[in-house]
Amino acid sequence: MLPVARFVNFIEQNALFAPGNKVLAAVSGGTDSVLMSHLLKAAGINFGIAHCNFQLRGNEALRDQEFCQNLALKLRVPFHTINFDTTVYAAANKISIQMAARDLRYQWFDTLSRQHGYQSIALAHHQNDTIETILLNLTRGTGIAGLHGILPKNGMLARPLLFLTRDEINKTVSDDKLDFVEDSSNASAKYARNKIRLEVIPRLKELNPSLEKTFENNLKHFRDLELLLENQVAGLKETILHHGAGEIFLLVADVKKLNPARLLLFKLLQEYGFNETTVDDVLSVLDKHPGRVFESTGYLLVLDRDKLIIKQKKAGGPQTATITSNEHEAYFGAYKLNLLHDDSPLIVKDNAMAASVDAGLLVYPLTIRNWHQGDYFFPMGMKGRKKLSDYFINQKLSLHQKQDIPLLVNGNGDIIWVGGYRLDERYKVNNNTKKVTIFELYKLS
């Protein structure tokens, strides 16, 4: 007899489908998805069947496609099917056949949902699939999230068979004499998941015949631990992750208080794309190397004197710009620089974003660039030369702030102007100046 009551109870307990939801059932034709289809029908749920032909198994794939169409006719539900050239897609995207099939399948499910108004997608994973997923994650390396296995609900994806084991499914299909088709590739240990299913789990069941029940209990503990961790991390984000002055940062003193430091710092930085290896490197240099920069795909993590600064990488904009004598504007990163040539010795005052320079001292082409280690200049109004790194420290600028400052560099290599801060003493307008060039910076964003 179909376990309809348990099925409905599991759906309600996990809020898989809202009342009146239109559900798209992913059906391969195997025992799991066939049983799910019959249960959806028996429970009175409004659903349609979707079947993918990945064109990887010749006539067998065509047989499966025809079987699923007939199942939909038998259950009197809508049927959707599609043929994919999976091999070509995998080669074009340089991914495995399995990953290609997964991408194609979910892309199509998303399209069907939008076109036909499906609010949920039902997948026929069961308890043994969860065990396989956890073991697979452990062999590849995983955090706590990898131990919770397959969740009953994840966005539109719902898994209403997670209350059943594979043995229970097989027995129900046999007892109710439900027709199904067998995918011959399931018997091959070529794929990692199949190897775990066919070779590893049978050995584990020799040690523990109640393996599924044991894993079910463990999963509850893992999910509770994950929730506990997420709650603690959420609290830390409120208390030690600071937002201000255009930056996100953590005080090094707060990082040192984290316990366990590696796990909690990783969870704080994970959403910015930093991995556990980066976290290990950061913790190893907290007291040693201010100025170190770590990168993820979209962010920089800067170890300043007393802070860890998270900074989003900027897209576009040149990191150096050249200015010839006949140009009147230039662009550098987030800045635009205007040039005004004047025959009178005009001096711009009270505007840090503008500087008046003795035009007779300019050697073209000029360059705008970022700060380099070892740069120095002669700050106007001060005696002698000063390293820019020391000047920036005096200005209380963090590493990522000083990297953003545009430097105007003469053709002879002298730094003329630290944009927005200080002119070089050697290039100021004086009584002998005959012509002035005024440089003015504008922030574009």
Structure description:
It is a single chain. This protein has 445 residues and is an alpha+beta fold. The protein has a six-stranded mixed β-sheet, with helices on both faces. The chain contains 14 helices and 22 strands. Strand 13 (329-332) and strand 14 form a beta hairpin. The mean pLDDT is 88.
Note the main attributes of this structure:
445 residues, alpha+beta, five-stranded antiparallel beta sheet, 20% strand
Describe what is shown at a glance.
With 445 residues, this protein is an alpha+beta fold.
Largest sheet properties:
6 strands, mixed
CA-based shape: elongated
Side by side, the strands of the main sheet go 3-2-1-4-6-5
Q: Which stretches are low in confidence, meaning pLDDT under 50 for 5 or more residues running?
A: none
For the secondary structure, the number of strands is 22
Strand content: 15-25%
How much helical structure, as a percent, in the residues?
25-40%
What is the CA-atom radius of gyration, in angstroms? Answer: 32 Å
Q: N- to C-terminal separation? A: 66 Å
What value does the average pLDDT take? 88
Number of helices: 14
Structural class of the secondary elements? alpha+beta
